[in-house]
């Protein structure tokens, strides 16, 4: 078995550093220059960045290819998001070896939004594996250096993570599901976006028993429009009314563009600093995963929060 | 159990009849499942006879058969209308896909050149709440999990057929597929096992489904 850690993220987690990961969302394009620009902007601040796999079932450039290009072009380590929606077990096993050969060392196991939701609803929804059995497959390939008992000549090395949702209702079902992911061998968890601190504390306290490092999913809001859209269109997540009101106030009362941007950044800092600090103090977090795509200018502020 | 069928649009059926140049047909209507679904039975036979005649297609004979899907029944029933069948260009069946394929097999012995056109789409094996309300609750996967999941099938009630749900597409117990109007199958399982005091079964990590013997045509032959 190869010696861990395999990546900067894995090393940070192993050393108990408080890690920060960002998120990159390549679009329906073969040209990654915009994503590469954002990757370069966040690179000085983060351990790694997630690269999404056709979120909402809307087809984009393949996440394995995008992760490889981003790593190659920017040096920023990627967390390759891999859903079980589009490829069967055989195909995914091949991709795990391919991903390693392309230099990827972190993979996030996700179910993926159903094909029916996206822009190719006629596609066959595969789901041969699920988010737990994909974790198990990766661990088998990495640690046992085999697939179904068949040896892999040069096995892959990956840190495999999984998702967790503190907003889930019923929460009990989600907690037991995290237990399955832990049993399958998940090495880290990245949570869905949270704004409700009490619920988050309850959830993180419950899953502490599984001993999997947790990166808290946060979504700093770049503008009132983004905050409102997030609150309206992201199922299961609501932005607290006082936050929405504050963001609305910034939009309404500040006309100078530069000042407005600074006010939004400051408001995010003010909201997330006590939020993260409290969870950190309680020993519930191993790091933060910032999902605010296209909002790279927040990272210098965010790193202040992380280091506080 | 009922094999649930819905009617194909008339135009699609007439196009198929035209494609095979059927000017005179025998109509075989299922008196069991399709009759319950109102896509067959006596009423279906009468409706289709009228529609066909309006389009100038002659109906040589029309029968309501108890089990179109049973080869033995169809052998017997087709024998009774052999003269009309001999004279017809093909058969229009008001049945499920099993019925059509049973007819193709039986008909093929004597009239391999005659086409069989189907008027229905086969939807699923249905649980009946009442007539007109049928629900898919079993996919016939061949490896029943119900003893582990509180008697609720995740392969069917989970839109992704996950072995370890619920997924992130569940919001307040509802499924992302169908605009959160349908229950998440895995939450139903969770609640049922919670009521039974058996959440230990819910927590169990399940292997991915074994397709090695399930991913192709199956048969049950025991004598």
What does this 3D model show about the protein?
The complex is a heterodimer of chains A (308) and B (223). The model of chain A has no long low-confidence stretch (mean pLDDT 97). Chain A is α/β, with parallel strands linked by helices. Chain A contains eleven helices and ten strands. Chain A starts with 7 loop residues before the first helix and ends with a helix. Chain A has one domain: TIM Barrel (Alpha-Beta Barrel), CATH 3.20.20. In chain A, helix 7 links the parallel strand 8 and strand 9. In chain A, 48% of the residues are buried. Chain A is globular and about 65 Å long. In chain A, helix 4 packs across helix 5. Chain A is 45% helix and 15% strand. Chain B has 223 residues and is of the alpha/beta class. Chain B has two domains: 123 residues, Rossmann fold; 86 residues, no CATH class. Helices cover 34% and strands 22% of the residues of chain B. Chain B is built from nine helices and nine strands. In chain B, the strands form three sheets. Chain B has a four-stranded parallel β-sheet, sandwiched between helices. Chain B has a three-stranded antiparallel β-sheet with strand order 1-6-7. In chain B, helix 4 packs across helix 6. Chains A and B meet through helix 5 and helix 6 of A and strand 8, helix 8 and helix 9 of B.
What key phrases describe this protein's structure?
heterodimer; A: 308 residues; alpha/beta; TIM Barrel; 45% helix; globular; B: alpha/beta; Rossmann fold; four-stranded parallel β-sheet; three-stranded antiparallel β-sheet; 9 strands; 34% helix
What is the third-level CATH name, the topology of the largest domain in chain B? Rossmann fold
**What coarse outline of chain A follows from CA principal-axis ratios?**
globular
Task: List the domain count of chain B as a whole number.
Answer: 2
The CATH architecture of the largest domain in chain B comes to 3-Layer(aba) Sandwich
Helix content of chain A: 40-55%
What is the terminal separation of chain B in angstroms?
Answer: 24 Å
What structural class is derived from the secondary structure elements of chain B?
alpha/beta
Total DSSP helices of chain A:
11
**CATH domain class name of the largest domain in chain B:** Alpha Beta
Q: Quick check: average pLDDT of chain B?
A: 97
Distance between the termini of chain A: 37 Å
As for the number of domains of chain A, it is 1
Shape estimate of chain B = elongated
* SSE succession of chain A: HEHEHEHEHEEEHEHEHHHEH
Largest sheet of chain A, in brief, is:
8 strands, parallel, barrel
Oligomer class: heterodimer
Tell me the CATH topology of chain A.
TIM Barrel
Helix content of chain B: 25-40%
């Amino acid at each position: 078995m190869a010696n861990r850690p395999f990546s900067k993220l894995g090393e940070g987690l192993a050393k108990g550093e408080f890690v920060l990961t960002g998120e990159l969302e390549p679009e329906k394009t073969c040209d990654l220059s915009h994503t590469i620009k954002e990757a370069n902007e966040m690179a000085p601040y983060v351990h790694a960045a997630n690269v999404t796999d056709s979120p909402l079932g809307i087809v984009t450039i393949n996440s394995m290819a995008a992760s490889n290009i981003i790593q190659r072009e920017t040096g920023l380590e990627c967390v390759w998001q891999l859903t079980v929606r589009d490829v069967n077990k055989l195909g995914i096993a091949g991709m795990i070896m391919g991903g390693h050969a392309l230099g990827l060392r972190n993979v996030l196991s996700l179910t993926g939004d159903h094909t029916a939701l996206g822009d190719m609803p006629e596609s066959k929804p595969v789901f041969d594996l699920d988010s737990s059995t994909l974790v198990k497959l990766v661990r088998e390939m990495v640690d046992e250096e085999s697939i179904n008992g068949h040896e892999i000549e040069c096995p892959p090395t990956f840190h495999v993570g999984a998702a967790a949702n503190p907003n889930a209702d019923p929460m009990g079902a989600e907690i037991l599901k995290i237990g399955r992911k832990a049993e399958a061998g998940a090495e880290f968890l990245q949570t869905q976006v949270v704004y409700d601190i009490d619920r988050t504390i309850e959830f993180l306290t419950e899953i502490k028993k599984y001993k999997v490092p947790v990166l808290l999913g946060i979504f700093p809001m770049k503008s009132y429009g983004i905050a409102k859209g997030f609150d309206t269109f992201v199922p299961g997540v609501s932005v607290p009314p006082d936050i929405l009101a504050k963001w609305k106030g910034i939009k309404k009362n500040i006309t100078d563009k530069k000042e407005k941007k600074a006010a939004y950044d400051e408001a995010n800092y003010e909201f997330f600093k006590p939020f993260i600090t409290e969870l950190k103090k309680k020993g519930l977090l191993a790091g933060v995963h910032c999902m605010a795509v296209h909002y790279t200018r927040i990272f210098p502020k965010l790193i202040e929060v992380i280091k506080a | 159990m009922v094999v649930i069928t819905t009617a194909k649009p008339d135009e699609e059926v007439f196009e198929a009849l035209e494609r095979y140049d059927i000017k005179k047909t025998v109509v075989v209507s299922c008196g069991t499942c399709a009759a319950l679904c109102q896509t067959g039975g006596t009423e279906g036979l009468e409706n289709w006879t009228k529609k066909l005649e309006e389009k100038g297609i002659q109906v040589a004979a029309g029968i309501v058969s108890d089990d179109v899907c049973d080869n033995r029944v169809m052998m017997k029933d087709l024998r009774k209308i052999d003269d009309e069948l001999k004279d017809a260009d093909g058969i229009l069946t008001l049945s499920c896909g099993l019925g059509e394929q049973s007819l193709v097999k039986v008909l093929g012995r004597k009239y391999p050149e005659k086409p069989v056109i189907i008027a229905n789409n086969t939807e699923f094996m249905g649980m009946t709440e009442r007539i007109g309300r049928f629900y898919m609750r079993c996919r016939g996967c061949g490896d029943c999990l119900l003893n582990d999941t509180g008697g609720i099938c995740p392969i069917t009630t989970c839109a992704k057929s996950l072995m370890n749900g619920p997924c992130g597409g569940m919001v307040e117990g509802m499924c992302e597929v169908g605009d959160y109007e349908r229950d998440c199958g895995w939450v139903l399982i969770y609640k049922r096992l919670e009521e039974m005091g058996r959440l230990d079964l819910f927590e169990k990590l399940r292997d991915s489904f074994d397709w090695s013997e399930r991913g192709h045509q199956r048969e049950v032959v025991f004598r």
